[in-house]
Amino acid sequence: MPKPHSCSPVCEEARTTQPQTRPVRGFVDSSLDFAKENRRMKLRTLIRLFRSGQLSLLRSLTKEVRRYHRLAFLASGLSSGLLNRLAAGPVPLEGLESEFVADPAMRDGFEAWLGLGLALGELRSTSEGYTLRGKLSRRLVDPRNDAAAASIEEVVTLHNRLINESPERLRQGRPFSLADQDARLIARSSRLHEPFICEAIDEAIPQHGQVALLEIGCGAAAYIRYAAERNPELTALGLELQPAAAPLAAENIAQWGLSDRVSVEVGDVMQRASQPVFDIATLHQNIYYFPLAARTGVLRHVLSFLKPGGRLLVTTVCQGPGAAVDVLNIWGAMTEGCGRLPSPEELIGQFQQAGYTNVKLKRLVPGDSFYSFLGQRSEGS
Ligand SMILES: C[S@@+](CC[C@H](N)C(=O)[O-])C[C@H]1O[C@@H](n2cnc3c(N)ncnc32)[C@H](O)[C@@H]1O
């Protein structure tokens, strides 16, 4: 009687004799032929692709798709909290699964997503667990680079939609709305221009003496902070249209210990009653939140908040060369109640029509179309 689980004699024989048995000659030959044929086919395909120009197309495509995947992976790694979770050191897969996967049946999906991070070189799998590997991942988890991290999320979410959906929305006559943007994310990413805007603030705000500042659309309130640190006597009102962004400003102001000098209010500057009590008003990166034809009226309304001799500082991307120009232009032109980017000459003209004097234009970023506009309410008005 055969032993349980043992092979049948035939099978046993096959197992013992197989290694010594020479393969049938014909089979060996045909497998070699097949390998040769394979090589021939590869070369033939390669030549055909090369001649048709498709080889270079495929190579460019692979390169660009990989870049796109990298950005998308980084954005999801940031927004999901994975990259920050790995910032302190390796975490075993089981630990990550318990935090990131609600349904154990979906573990394969999680490993597949991590697998993309590994393939892109952004993650590394070690005996201690997953860890950050890529230069970008490691830099983006540094809190000092929060604006860059937010920009990547903005590109992958909002920019992707702007570029992708615009043709269909144009066909349907359906613009985007402010609700299509994550106001808190935009407030964070807008800080990417901080060094350049601070330079413009240096020219507009004196270091000493009492100064009352009205900041319209204050976002994260980073520029109020800079102005308040520059001038210890400065007081400020930050006005923010979007209720989702205003709490970030208020949290920051409290955290920076500025609550005694700075207040933040939710509201639309155009709905605010005029009161000429401010020495300086600022509009940073938001003139395109107003339609082109309405901007002279907006600037005139802002003038009514300034004391005689008071000044308005506007910083904005304009039409022209620059990495942020084209997509921002789509955003302004495609979003209800907003408008395309201005040209520098256009905005200077609108300042003048609104009644400002001594209007000065300055390019803030060499080779880019990011400018400051400084105008004054005349002393006698
Ligand atoms: C791109 S963000 C810039 C935020 C900040 N100024 C900065 O540069 O970091 C523009 C901000 O302006 C605000 N805003 C737009 N129109 C406004 C209005 N009519 N009144 C008050 N705030 C407004 C938006 O809600 C948004 O938070």
Low-confidence stretches: 1-29
What is the number of beta strands?
Answer: 9
Q: At the first level of CATH, what is the class of the largest domain?
A: Alpha Beta
Judged by helices, strands and strand pairing, the structural class is: alpha/beta
Alpha carbon gap, first and last residue: 115 Å
Number of individual domains = 3
CATH-derived architecture of the largest domain: 3-Layer(aba) Sandwich
* Beta-strand share of residues: 15-25%
**CATH overall fold name of the largest domain:** Rossmann fold
Hetero groups: S-adenosylmethionine
Strand order of the largest sheet: 5-4-3-6-7-9-8
Description:
With 381 residues, the chain is an alpha/beta fold. The protein has three domains: 54-139, Arc Repressor Mutant, subunit A; 143-184, no CATH class; 192-376, Rossmann fold (3-Layer(aba) Sandwich), CATH 3.40.50.150. 50% of the residues lie in helices and 15% in strands. The strands form two sheets. It has a seven-stranded mixed sheet, sandwiched between helices. Strands 1-2 form a two-stranded antiparallel sheet. Helix 10 crosses helix 11 and helix 13 (295-303) crosses helix 15. The longest helix has 28 residues, at 25-52. The radius of gyration is 31 Å and the shape is globular. The structure holds S-adenosylmethionine. The site of S-adenosylmethionine has 23 residues, from helix 9 and strand 4.
